[in-house]
UniProtKB/TrEMBL annotation:
Cofactor note: Binds 1 [4Fe-4S] cluster per subunit. Following nitrosylation of the [4Fe-4S] cluster binds 1 [4Fe-8(NO)] cluster per subunit.
Record-stated family: Belongs to the WhiB family.
PROSITE patterns for this protein: 4FE4S_WBL
Extent of the signal sequence: none
Alphabetic keyword roster: 4Fe-4S, Cytoplasm, Disulfide bond, DNA-binding, Iron, Iron-sulfur, Metal-binding, Transcription, Transcription regulation
Reported modifications of this chain: The Fe-S cluster can be nitrosylated by nitric oxide (NO).
Function: Acts as a transcriptional regulator. Probably redox-responsive. The apo- but not holo-form probably binds DNA.
Ranges where the 4Fe-4S Wbl-type domain occurs: 22-86
GN (gene name): whiB
Protein's name in the database: Transcriptional regulator WhiB
Localization: Cytoplasm
GO biological process terms on file: cell redox homeostasis; negative regulation of DNA-templated transcription
Required cofactor(s): [4Fe-4S] cluster
């Protein structure tokens, strides 16, 4: 579960970037794996979600937000759950950590 204490208050300026997200008109099941999904199916779904992220004008804001609140599920800002965990642990390759 997201750590609510890390979330900023309800200030529109802090959240307005989300209106520009490329994912807004995409089925959210693409970004969150169904229970029991493993292996190649999970990798294909995550890669399809990341492809949408990589063309997104607010990818870095999304990524930074997901890392700041330690978002535990889904693809956010072009990073999977495992990639975010690695970034927070400092074990993610630099090439993947920052894009742009």
């Amino acid at each position: 579960m997201t750590e609510l204490s890390r979330l900023p208050g309800p200030v529109m300026d802090l959240w307005e970037w989300q209106y520009q997200g490329s994912c807004r008109d995409v089925d959210d099941t693409l970004f969150f794996h169904p229970e029991g999904e493993r292996g190649a199916a999970r990798r294909r779904r995550a890669e399809a979600a990341k492809a949408i992220c990589h063309g997104c004008p607010v990818m870095m804001q999304c990524r930074e937000q997901s890392l700041a609140v330690r978002e535990p599920y889904g693809v956010w800002g072009g990073l999977s759950e495992d990639e975010r965990a690695a970034a927070l642990a400092g074990t993610m390759p630099t090439k993947t950590r920052r894009v742009g």
